[in-house]
Specification:
By secondary structure, this protein is α+β, with helices and mostly antiparallel strands. The protein has 10 helices and 13 strands. Helix 8 runs antiparallel to helix 9 and helix 8 runs antiparallel to helix 10.
C-alpha cells in the first residue's frame, strides 16, 4: 500500500532563518545524475529472504555514482561551511549539522529534487520518497579535531535508506574513508560484544573520486562508519534520507536516538507527523482490504498493527533515563 509522502513543512521551527545571498538551486545546472555501475544486495551480506521481504529495499549498498555537477558541488560546499556554525554533537559524531534544510533553500531544494528522487528509486529498486522527517534531509558531518578519531563510529542508521555524498574533496585529505561491513547487524553485534571491530577483509570502502559523488545505502541494515583521518583536514559529507512509500513495510527507525541530538520543537513535531502518515497509510489499507471475519482477536490484531507506529512513537518520546545512542564502539 503506497502512500503519498507528506510535503515539506510550509512553516519553520523557531530560531531558523533562511540564508541570504545563496544561489538558487537549478537541477539543470547543479545536478549531474548518473547511475552506479554496481550494487550489493542484502542477500550478499548474509540476510535471509524472510528478513529482506519486509524491508524498504533489497539493496544493501551501491558503488559510487555522481549526483552534483562541479557547479553544484561548489555551491553545496559553500553552504555547508556557512551551516557549520549551527553544529551540534552526539555520542557517535563530534561535529554535525541537522535541520540545515530550514536554513539553506539550496540544500532543501537539492534534497527534495524529483529527478534525484527518481534516481534513488532506480538505485533502490523500490518506490522511495525524501524522508518525511526533514531532520533526516541534508544531514552534514564534519571532521573531528583529533587525528585517529572516527568521524562517525560503526553503526547502523536511525532511518531506512539514504545516500552518503562527499561535499569536500576526498582527494585532498588523508583517511576519512566511508566504509561498510560486508555482513549482517547480528554478526557485527557479536563481534562488538567480544570487543572486536569488523575484520579488515570484510570492510568495503567505495572509491569516491570527488565532491558530489555518493554511495546509496540501506542504512538500517548495513553497518558502516566514516573512518578516522590520518592527518587533520576538511572532511564534509552530506547524508540525505529516504523512506519507502509502502507503509505496510517495516518502519526501520530508531527515532528515540534523536532525542539527545535534535532540538525538541523540531523533532517531536516531525516525528508525530511521520508516525501519523505511516498509520494513515496502514489504516487506509485496512479500510480497503479488511475481510469479514468473526474472530475479533484477528480483527483487533490487524487494527492494532495499523496504529503500531503511533503507539511506539508515543512510548519512545519518553525514553528511560539510561537510554543512549546505539552504535558498535
Amino acid at each position: 500500500m503506497t502512500a503519498e509522502a507528506i510535503p515539506f513543512p510550509t512553516a519553520r521551527p523557531d530560531g531558523y532563518e533562511w540564508f541570504d545571498e545563496e544561489p538558487t538551486f537549478d537541477p539543470a545546472i547543479h545536478l549531474d545524475l548518473r547511475l552506479p555501475s554496481d550494487k550489493t544486495y542484502l542477500v550478499d551480506l548474509g540476510y535471509s529472504r524472510e528478513e529482506i521481504a519486509t524491508k524498504s529495499t533489497p539493496i544493501a549498498a551501491s558503488g559510487a555514482y555522481r549526483v552534483l555537477s562541479d557547479e553544484g558541488a561548489a555551491v553545496l560546499l559553500a553552504s555547508a561551511r556557512r551551516l557549520r556554525e549551527h553544529h551540534t554533537t552526539c555520542d557517535r559524531i563530534d561535529t554535525m549539522v541537522r535541520g540545515g534544510v530550514y536554513r539553506s533553500k539550496f540544500l532543501r531544494d537539492l534534497c527534495l529534487d524529483p529527478s534525484l528522487t527518481e534516481l534513488m528509486c532506480d538505485i533502490f529498486e523500490a518506490d522511495v520518497a525524501p524522508h518525511t522527517m526533514p531532520v533526516h534531509l541534508g544531514h552534514l558531518n564534519f571532521e573531528p579535531d583529533i587525528v585517529d578519531k572516527a568521524v562517525d563510529k560503526w553503526h547502523h542508521d536511525t532511518l531506512p535508506c539514504d545516500f552518503v555524498m562527499m561535499v569536500s574533496d576526498p582527494t585532498s585529505i588523508d583517511g576519512g574513508e566511508f566504509e561498510y561491513f560486508h555482513g549482517t547487524k547480528l554478526e557485527m553485534a557479536a563481534l562488538s560484544s567480544e570487543g572486536h571491530g569488523p575484520p579488515r577483509d570484510r570492510v568495503v570502502a567505495p572509491d569516491l573520486p570527488g565532491p558530489g559523488w555518493a554511495v546509496a545505502l540501506h542504512g538500517d541494515m548495513v553497518v558502516h562508519r566514516a573512518a578516522p583521518l590520518n592527518e587533520l583536514g576538511e572532511r564534509i559529507t552530506m547524508v540525505n534520507g529516504y523512506v519507502s512509500t509502502d507503509t505496510t513495510l517495516d518502519e526501520q527507525a530508531r527515532s528515540i536516538d534523536l532525542i539527545g541530538v535534535d532540538d525538541h520543537e523540531t523533532l517531536f513535531t516531525e516525528w508525530a507527523r511521520h508516525a501519523a502518515w505511516r498509520a494513515a497509510g496502514r489504516l487506509e489499507h485496512l479500510i480497503t482490504s479488511l475481510e469479514f471475519n468473526p474472530d475479533r482477536d484477528v480483527v483487533a490484531a490487524q487494527l492494532n498493527e495499523a496504529i503500531a507506529d503511533v503507539q511506539q512513537a508515543v512510548k519512545d518520546m519518553y525514553p528511560p533515563e539510561n537510554h543512549s545512542m546505539a552504535h558498535y564502539e
